[in-house]
Protein 1
Amino acid sequence: MTLLKLLTWPYVRKHLLRTWLTVAGIALGVVVFAGMHTANDTVLYGFQKTVDRIAGKAQLEVSSGETGFPEEVLEKVQALAEVDVAVPVIEATVSAGRQGNLLLLAVDMTGDRSLREYDFEEGEEAVLEDPLVFLAQPDSLIVTRDFAARNNLAAGGKLALDTMEGRRHFTVRGIMKPGGLASAFGGSLAVMDIYAAQKVLGRGRRFDRIDLTVKPGVPVDQGRAAIQKALGSGYQVERPASRGKQFESIARIFAIGATLNGMFALLIGLFIIYNTFSVAVAQRRSEIGVLRALGATQGQIRRLFLLESAVLGLAGSGLGILLGLLMARAMAGYLSDYFGEVYGIAQRTEAVAADPALLAFSVLAGVLASMLAAWIPARQAAQVDPVRALHKSAHETFSSRESRMRLAWAAIFLAVALAMVAAGGHTGLRLYVGYLSVVIAAVLLTPAMVRALIRVLRSVLQAILPVEGALAADSLLQSPRRTSATVAAVMLSLSLVVGLGGISAASYDSIFEWMSNVLNPDLFVGTSEQIAERSYRFPPALGETIRQMDFVDQVQMVRTVRVLYRQTPVMLVATDLKSLSERVRPKVVAGDARTMFVEAAQGKGVVLADNLALMQRLKLGDVIEIPSPGGVLRLAVLGITIDYSDQAGAVLMDRSLFLRNWNDDSVNLFRVYLKRGVKPEEARQRILERLGPHSRLFVMTNQELRKYVMKVTDQWFGLTYLQIFVAVLIAILGIVNSLTVSITDRRRELGVLRAVGGLRRQVRQAVWMEAAGIGAVSIVLGLALGAVVLYYYLGVVGGDLVGIRLEYRYPAGMALLLVPTMLLVALIAALGPAEAAVRASLVEALEYE
Amino acid sequence: MNSLVLLLMVCGVRAEDGRQIMREVQNRTKANSQRYEGTLKVIDGKNRISEKRWTYERIGSAGDSKVVLRFLAPAEVKGVALLVVNHPDRASDQWMWTPALQRDRRIALQDRSTRFFGTDFSFEDLEERDADQFDYRVLAEENVNGAACWKIEGRPKKTRSSQYTHSYLWIEKERYAVIAIDAWHNERLVRRIHYGDYRRVSNIWTPLTLEVEDMGRKSKTVLKTEKLEYNVPVKEEAFTLQALRRES
Amino acid sequence: MEVEPLLSLAGVMIQLQQVSKVFDGKRQVTALDHVSLSVSKGEMVAITGPSGSGKSTLLNLIGGLDKPTSGEILLDGESLSQVSDDELTRVRRDKIGFIFQFFNLLPALTCLENVVLPLHLRGWPRKKIDERARELLELVELSHRLDHLPEELSGGERQRVAIARALSIYPPVLLADEPTGNLDSQTGAEILKLIQRLNERLNSTVLVVTHDMGVSGTCTRTIRLRDGRIVEDARR
């Protein structure tokens, strides 16, 4: 430790910038890993907290997917001997206009207070003392103090909410004190009478859920079993906490992405560290020589460098965690909105929820990555020959034996990768092993390819500026380790960019195709501007009303509902399949396009979205089990089509089958086809004039819906772009690091250059060209590796994450864009080092050793 | 006392026969129907007073009666109604009707111990049960406000059906009138009820004032009855959910 | 001061007037203390003195690698004191050739490339560069080593390459900082002979910093420094 302080600290102080760059290399990896995971945890925690707070004392919850169930079920549950108190609940996110979204908790106030604490501060007389007024007036609402304060509401105040009858004003009849229930959903919570809510949300005589406690002395699991037995398998009876599990399965995609990208970022950081340490060892050779001459053992030298790397890793991880938490904060809000919009999940993020284990792991990963990267340089340092230490030796070059070993290993890894492909490694372990092998092989091959490419590049650079070009190229050739490490870091970053870009480009293509095949009605009539919002529902009669309008050709009623399939919430889409099959031409993956819809329309089975089939490994002819209030339905898979209705996968079923088994005729969405020649805008106007005043409805034209789908897609890829941004940032860091190192390393050479007559401009240009050289070589290798990486990413996305089968298409546009971007980035990265080079004192530079 | 709100039943004769005393109380208040207008004053622990008015109609007699309560005031709750269908052998069924929503809701058994809309009564207290649903025994003879009374203990035969484990009733010997009831849950006195202002209406001694005290909350509800009549012409059909829906 | 043009006409190549160099650090170090000196065209001067006496500083100032704290330096009549870095570089590239103790060859370049580097920096046409390169390597007797990398050469050979590089433009002034310091005595003597021959042949003004007494023996004039001052200036 003393040695560290004695020897390392002065060095760190002298090369402050480089130290920072090194720390930043580790920090970025940790930021991505810790930040993304923490954002995910935060959203999950926010959701769980909302669930907990709303659950109150409830020990069990009874539900039937998202469909809810008839009121009678409540009496059945209440009649069970094991049940103490059972109360009905409807939970929905409603729009309060400018006030934003409110989580509406609709309960029966009469009994609910034995499960949930309502701690009132105002309007006591009206609500606490006299629920009669609350119940008698269906416009009654209880809000939290937070929400009231934010919106200047007092007891008796009015608040506008969207209802099935359009926008209505509600009266605040009670204000809850903060804490407990009132802090659920970040305080944006309103309590309403459940029967009023049925009307407001168009739910008919149904409840979403029953919250209950079991009789004192009855074990919860026994109560659960009794209820399950009484209600049958169409119902889920679970502890409130288990709702978090469903959410986790949705957030899994994101969590895996976070891990992959965090690890990748760390891997790139590893090269930056390796680079810095290699150069540090080279620069401190004489110092090491002196130490060895004074009696330091090889072990001591190695430990010195490893300890140094550990300290840097620790600093980087600490910084990374700090920044990661900041990033998590920003990202959690974004994610939260996304989950809310796409999954209709009621949750509001509050404080960032940092998992100590995760943070500890991040620090550990950062420190280990740093030490791993310093391993080879540390070993080299230990092997410094004290006698020859003062001579510049061949340490910077690779011995031919080393090069041969590299090539041999690269060949082995390539062979492994090929074997995985040959073994059908499109999914699972084989895919990941293959991916890893390819990346390792690419890294191993980097030195050889760098040398070849720079030789080619030398003549190009020389053609541009003969002296500077040659100098730049030679400088790169002269330090193969440094150049290769930098190129490897930048290459990996770029391959990540290409891979992610390819995924995003292919996804957009695929989604476009799906939209034009399937989303072809002229108008969509929904209950909300968000298609995924399922809190409000239409009565089917409204469909009839629309159908009878003289400009309407056809109306298809769509009911979407999330159900649990193998513990994963998937989307059930119930609609008139016969009519649908006449209008849409989905891309069929399996099954007979002509017969699958006909048979499904007869209730003989269902048609699956390809992503569901891929993720759940389902084939044509398989039987899937879907819970319904009437019991578990066993349905044959009649066909598989490309369908992006839902990220977790969609099951397409005929409406008649749904009506029979769910006994629920409400509708989420009408697909409206207009008669020839009718302008969608006009038709929309007329529908709104006719129905708008009496009911809450949103009419979207085909174009608007597509725009909406694109918006949601953009939101999803927004996260990807963030990752691309980080990857580019790491690339910049790598180049800056390498150049800074290179400039210090070559101070004397640059001094000689100037001493023998090189102008500042010429020195500057030589450094710039060196940067451009690194940039160019990295681009070539990165874009090439990206093409391979993309293949694996498609496999990960297709088989493992979202089951979206994407076609391989190299993101050429993005690649083309990357060329000038990275060259520019390289030049910008070179600005600082180049100035440092020309401003350095000539005398010192020439004496430099 | 027949009707009104309340707890438990009634009556008896000798120390060894609490049940007979309570049957006698029930018999003396027997009528085919009843109607009155009530004013409820709720005085909470902080001395704040709120007031409600309702009309009360009953058909049938103890243990086999039906009751409809309709709120008249305050304005926000006007038209809200409660239908209680009592059964001789078990807890009653209760429904509430809210006119603004145009729908009824069941008051679940589990909720009967909760307060009846901001008063100091619970929903259970609105039931009327036959004396046979309880075991009675005379504990003592005591003087209450100068009147000789029996102190009788009543315990529900089916413990599951009531929030109270037991109650003490004070019955005035001369008129077989209930003077007071203390309702207990194990060691805790839950509610204390006083009947007063006894008048003879249609030959039935009827208390015109009733005071319920919620011992936990330290608040008090006073019910005063007006326009009280017995054996008025009421129709069986008026005591159904359909009628509630129709009439609002 | 009036004598200045006179001196110039009289063939003075290097002229220092009251030149001081102070290095700022935790402790101020006066490397040169009001040194005045003039060297005529074609002179071969040895600058000697103990370590830290200011020899190298003097050479660096004359070579335009550094600027004086005060005083005036004239090189072939041009002032080096008040000019920009790029102007200084231009003076360097047109009038001065450097020979370093550690050779300072660029390791990635071949001998030939190292030698012609200054010509490239001046943007000479390739043909002219090729001619000059051959000429130079012949001059230093290294024609057979054209395509070798510096690391493949012996110390003496490397110094010859460095000398060829310094001579590439036939500069009027040749500055050598301990040119033999890194060589064995026999090689050192050969190198010295080479420098002397070039001095005669090209009529360059040569300044050699050394503490090798043999070197000063070869020179026409010896200047001895101590503590930043000239303590002896002897012509032979």
Protein 2
Amino acid sequence: MEQATPTLEELNQLVQMSGTINMEIFYWWCIALMMVIHAGFLSYEIGASRLKNVLTAGVKNILAFAFIVPTFFFFGWFIYNGFAGGFVLDMEAASAALPWSQSMGPNISDNATGIFWGAFALFAATTASIMSGALIERTRMSAFIILAVILGSVVWILGAAWSWHPTGWLTTQWGFHDVGAAGCVHMIAGFFTLGVVINVGARIGRFNADGSANSITGHSMPMSVIGLMLVIVGFFGFLGGCIIFNVGGQWTNIYGQPATLSGFAFNTLMGFAGGLIGAYLTTREPFWMMSGGLIGIISVAPGLDVYYPPLAYVIGMGVAASAPLVHKFLVKRQIDDAVGAFAVHGFAGFAGLTLSGIFLSGYPNMGEGVPPVNFLGQFGGAVVLGLLGFIPGYLISLAMKKMGVLRVPAHAEERGLDLTEVPAQAYPEWALTGASTTYVSTDSASATLVVAEVKTV
Amino acid sequence: MSSPISSWEGASAIFTFADKPAVTVTIVVIAVALTVFAVWATIRHEKHSYNSPMTKK
């Protein structure tokens, strides 16, 4: 039986459609991997909570994800497309991102919008999860949801429009380069969180009247450490979502510069390993080591496409070794960031961007008249993004504090939020034996004060 | 009819009511309202929980 020979045009269409579908498949699995970030944050945060707050921490984390996805559909994607130039809306660029546009739903002539929206929605949910852990055990669920929506569907995506978009003003005017979103995701989330943590205040028992600190230990460090490892696994989806799959051409980074996934693999792993070792050197404990791995990746994220891998290793190690000191500095200032979110995300992003100003200087940007990467552009961009995160986080949470809607009442905090708010039990056996323990110890290992509350049912 | 197409030939946007902008806008408004309602319900639940005699024991 004779087979018809396909024409050149038919073959071309076949290759093109095959490439388009491969592109969709690639981002589909990036989205799936990014879901693992949330599984990780869930485990991490639950482990870092005391027994009496375990389920509330879980509910809070899940709700962050749940509220970010629809709100990112309603207005987050619109902000990304409409505000690349600053605060003035470019309606022409944003019109296709309106929630009722023909692109914002199943459309068989558009294979890109949904899959990119999905990846960005997961980035958005990551920013909210970063904040979530810092606020455990004393923040109202409703306040957290509102703050999460503002951070995840407004603030970070405005920063992404400015700094992580081919026509973002930080790139076109200052030459800003941050391929792995250290600035718009991590720094903004970290600085926003810092602003909120200042206003929400410390957990009861965290600090003494003389200003000295007690460590409040979560109920399961293994759960937290495994959670952090899951976050790292999910990061490969996150970073995959930071590179553009061009059908029929080389990968490019988000700014349109040629890049390879191979380059990302070199530097992600070397930064990760450096971070683990750096945190081990200054803390010797697994919680900070795994956080250090994350810090290592974040600190090299701006130059994942071009760093020499041993340099990424050194940067990751140095920043991760320093981050626990930043956390200690906050504790001395009586700022209770329960999981070190500012040190891990805010500080690491800032340090990574500042160092990238030294090491990436001179790399050309795309587009006529766009300056090459330079120190002032990188450092200035980091300052802009830090302020973009901190100012709304601080002011909005301050307003909530004044209205009395930011923090749970003291009696609920002391009794435990699970008992107060959640109609379920995390560990029913504990209820049967009547043991509900709260461990509060001083930071000094040599002088451990343990307070145990034992309640009978 | 919620289908925006009568044939797959030349079809583009195929989501329900894609050819009726007034309906899609209305659905978005309802979805936003439900999201706001969920936040309000959370606030209500908190108030109830914090004032419960069980919690204050």
